[in-house]
Write a structure and sequence with these properties.
This protein is α/β, with parallel strands linked by helices. 56% of the residues lie in helices and 15% in strands. The termini are far apart.
Length: 506
């Protein structure tokens, strides 16, 4: 049996460091992809972390039986991790698009295999380090390298890997890290096994390279099965997976598979969101939009010559970049994001409200539905109190509030949460064919009404009479008694929305 002297302490430290970084990235990658595909980030990450850690514990326990040929066993583990982890992203997409109902089971199996292999790494590395110091020293050193490697991986994933490579390519690139560990370890293997390990390294490298080269086309193939229409743009960022499709004159934008707009009827949504609020304001000089990175709400606001300045706050820089540069989106938003009145700020809307000293006559919340607990922050009482502080004395806030039919409980929860800030609200709904019955809520310090409304701007869809009727809700959409107030501590709006989504999907 080869001794650990063949591997210097420095080389073992490097191997421990990079394999720990790879392991944490695989864990984060699976949680991120599962959130992209299925939403509910709390569940996806909790499940990912829990299963992965439990599997690591089982792997560490099984490693007790490994008493000889430690270097050779470590090489085999790293080769398996390189292939399994490298192809993990692609396999998760394949599982989602091929057998949706079986995705969760597949995810648990994948996590168990990866976690088990990672759990076996650490005891072997600690055993190899033992010869370079006492048991206590080896254990402490192994843990130190492992923890520091985990830190590097957890920082590299959101800041470097995911923004620049996307999910699937990240898996393959990190698989290469495990292959580097193999290359560093092979010289310490017994001479009888080195040739086999070199062949394994070459074959694994070729498979990883092939997967990396074809990753983009593979994802496009899976997404074509999902979206059916031609995909004209697709990109993964730190925050979301953006896909834009087109069929004839219908351009559609999806965020994490959720439809954000259809060009055939988006004007119905954006006119209903913007025109009533502007028509009720006497002096809409300064406007704040949180969300709305597609520039479509901005397009409607720019129709009002009284508006002097628009601040658009959108978290994802790529979203506003696409809306400024992609010809199809620019044509739809009429180059609104190039208008000199518009200032784009790529930041978290919650943090922006805390830090900005400005006050606004109109605050527009053109947000995704509260489908995750992270987004639900922007539907919380705390957030609305911040927005209220930034409203001018006669200012108006308007928010999209999802569907009062499909998500009735969360819609009225949003209304109740706004009322809890002592703002007066005016709920209304319109029909947007791409979404169905859709709801909005106006809020102000003064009572608002459409009774004597005169629309001031050019429009295709809404009219004053329709808006007066839009404030009437039928028995399927009417107020829910005892609607709770959503807060950071108790995000009821997210829980209620998730419950309704599960109801309609089932």
């Amino acid at each position: 049996m080869p001794t650990s002297s063949s591997l210097s302490a420095r080389r073992l430290a490097v191997i421990t460091l990079i394999t720990a970084a790879a392991a944490i990235v695989y864990e984060l990658l699976i949680g991120t992809i599962s959130t992209y595909l299925n939403g509910d980030s709390a569940l996806q990450y909790s499940l990912t972390i829990g299963v992965f850690l439990a599997a690591m514990g089982i792997g560490a326990y099984l490693a007790r039986a490994i008493e000889s040929h430690l270097v050779e066993k470590l090489i085999l583990i790293e080769l398996m991790l390189a292939l399994l982890g490298g192809f993990s992203g692609l396999m998760l997409y394949a599982a989602h698009f091929s057998f949706l109902d079986g995705y969760l089971a597949f995810m648990v199996v994948l996590l168990s295999l990866l976690g088990g292999l990672v759990g076996m790494e650490l005891p072997i590395l600690a055993e190899l380090l033992k010869q370079h110091g006492g048991i206590k020293s080896a254990f402490a050193s192994t843990l130190s390298y492992d923890y520091f490697g985990s830190l590097l991986g957890s920082l590299a994933f959101p800041l470097i890997l995911l923004p620049s490579l996307g999910t699937v390519k990240t898996g393959f690139v990190v698989g290469i890290v495990n292959l580097v560990a193999v290359a560093l370890t092979i010289p310490a293997a017994s001479a009888a096994h080195r040739k086999k390990f070199h062949a394994g390294l070459v074959i694994s490298s070729a498979l990883i390279a092939l997967g990396l080269f074809h990753s983009a086309s593979s994802i496009r193939w899976f997404e074509h099965r999902l979206y059916q229409d031609e995909i004209v743009y697709a990109e993964t960022t730190r925050f979301q997976r953006i896909v834009i499709t087109q069929y004839e004159n219908d351009l559609r934008l999806y965020s994490d598979q959720e439809l954000q707009f259809s060009s055939r009827d988006e004007y119905r949504y954006h006119e209903a969101l913007i025109h009533p609020a502007l028509s009720l304001l006497q002096t809409p000089g300064k406007v704040l939009i949180i969300g709305g990175g597609d520039g479509l709400a901005t397009r409607e606001i720019l129709k009002d010559a009284r508006v002097n300045a628009i601040t658009l706050v959108d978290l994802d820089p790529l979203m506003t970049k696409i809306s400024r540069e992609l010809p199809q989106i620019r044509a739809l938003n009429q180059d609104s994001l190039h208008n000199p009145k518009v200032k784009i700020v790529n930041a978290d809307g919650y943090r922006f409200l805390i830090e900005t000293p400005q006050h606004f006559d109109l605050i527009v919340l053109d947000l995704p539905d509260p489908r995750t607990e992270a987004i639900s922050r922007l539907y919380s009482r705390e957030f609305y109190l911040l927005a209220k502080k930034k409203l001018s004395a006669d200012g108006i806030l308007v928010t999209q509030a999802s569907s009062p039919y499909y998500a009735r409980e969360s819609y009225w929860c949003i209304n109740q949460t706004l009322l809890s800030t002592s703002l007066k609200t005016l709920p209304y709904r319109v029909n947007v064919p791409a979404f169905g019955e859709w709801g909005f809520i106006l809020a102000s310090r003064k009572t608002l009404s459409f009774d004597h409304l005169q629309l001031l701007l050019k429009h295709r869809f809404i009219n004053a009479e329709m808006l007066r009727q839009a404030t009437v809700f039928d028995t399927d959409t009417n107020t829910v008694a005892n609607s709770p107030v959503s807060s950071l501590e108790t995000p009821y709006v997210w829980r209620l929305y998730r419950k309704r989504v599960h109801y309609w999907r089932s």
